[in-house]
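Forum: Protein Structure Q&A
Topic: Joint prediction for protein chains with partners

I've read a bunch of threads here and the consensus seems to be that you should model interacting components together rather than docking separate models afterwards. I'd like to see that in practice. Below is the full input, 535 residues plus whatever partners are listed. Could one of the regulars post the assembled result?
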Amino acid sequence: MQYMLLIYENEEIFGGPEKTGPLMAEIGPKHFALIGEMGAARLGGGGLKGTAFATTVRRENGEQTIHDGPFAETKEQLGGYYLIDVPDLDAAIALARRVPLGRDGAIEIRPLIPLPPGVTR
Amino acid sequence: MSTPVGEGALDDAFRAVGGRIRAALAARYRDLDLAEEAFAESCLKAAKAWKDEGPPRDTAAWLYRVAERTALDILRRRRTRTENRPDEPASEPTAEDRLTSDDAVIPDERLKLIFVCCHPAIGGESRAALTLKLVCGLTTGEVARAFLLSETTLAQRLVRAKRNITEAGVGFEVPEPEHWAARLSAVLSTIEIAYAKAHEDAAGSGRHAGFAREMFDLTALLAEMLPEEAEVLALAATVRFAEARRPARIDSTGAMIPLVEQDPALWSQPMIAAARGYCARALGMSGPGPRIMQMMIHALWCGRRSVADPPPWKAVLAAYDILLGLRDDPVIRINRAVALAEVQGAEAALIELDRLDADVLNDFLPFLAARADVLSRLGRHDEARISFDRALALGPGEAERRFLERRRADLVGK
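Posted by a regular:
Agreed with the consensus. Here's the joint model:
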């Protein structure tokens, strides 16, 4: 089963929207260690630049508009993700537990909607 | 073999094996709905077949074989429905099914089913409901009454929980031992909640009455399957200590008798012996966990042999002090205050009770009853009366109501 692990943290701790602060230098190697351990279970993943660089395409009353900034103002922002393929939710939880966080934060585990046969991700 | 079976006997037979068969089917097909549906259908078939021909030698094996086949039929029906083909007729049990007597044909997957139902991905309130329904075989109506919910609300919750299990991909496995601490604790809390509901009702005649038996069986099952888990054994012991006292819990007028006033001669000694068996094993393997301490408090009380033995208040208070260090919750604080009233006096107990959050606990019967008792000992009768009235307004069971009314009446003229 495929799951997305969505990493939510307060992005301000990472030193600006480029996320090049000291905490980032500290956490990066931890992610690479985890990637090594995930092996074939990891289908993809990546870190996201800060929400200051976000652009949102929004549809409202049938009309499409483009805004700068994130979709919603929240205390914790989506900062990165992993796409994994593991046997079940417990395996996904086990990996999510090991995702490094700068400080407090949360990893949301979301099962992916299966694709029709023959379509690849 | 040709004796017809009464409907009550059939229901008992179905309930006795239902958990095991549903669990085996759910493990095989990884589909809780299919397991429930197939078992229900096989019970209908059994009711019909056994009425005409008498029950088979091994009813469990018969039901399982038929349920297995019914599950396959249901799967085939589901598939053909989408392809617009007519339903195939469901197969009938063969002569071989009627003669088989091999209980071992049903793999015991109940532990897996319990762990699935108590997965942390499922809402806390739904866990107990799902376990009671799938493992213990309670009807949606019975579970709804137990949790004071409407049947519609509970049914919706169960549907959501089951969909969660399928869609979120909860694995049908007993988790690895390193994850047991978190998962097992959810399982044990589920049983504790369900048993507490049964135990609240001293007369054993209320809407939760059936729970006591289910929790009794479920703890035995868990202890058999996880013989090295001290907390599991402790819970099995606790349930038995508490059940042992049931014959002494109401008087001839049907009023509840508080623990300290019960006649220990009426307690079931065989049941206490069974509890002590689990107790000794649990103590042999670990230090004091919260459930171990709960068990010890029950063990202290059940050590009394007659009304002449002094109540073990001091030891009970000491045990509550340790327990409070392990698990600080209002229920434990209330029980500790009751012991404190006996050891240090009502004044000390009232101070403890008033430290608790009255806004939350004013709808909680044990809090109101404990406070009413302490206030009446202190001679603060008007306040005691208010607490008794509040407790009575919660609509307690018959036995509890009679007890509270009598205590309230004792205040008159004082």
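Chain B has 20 helices and no strands.
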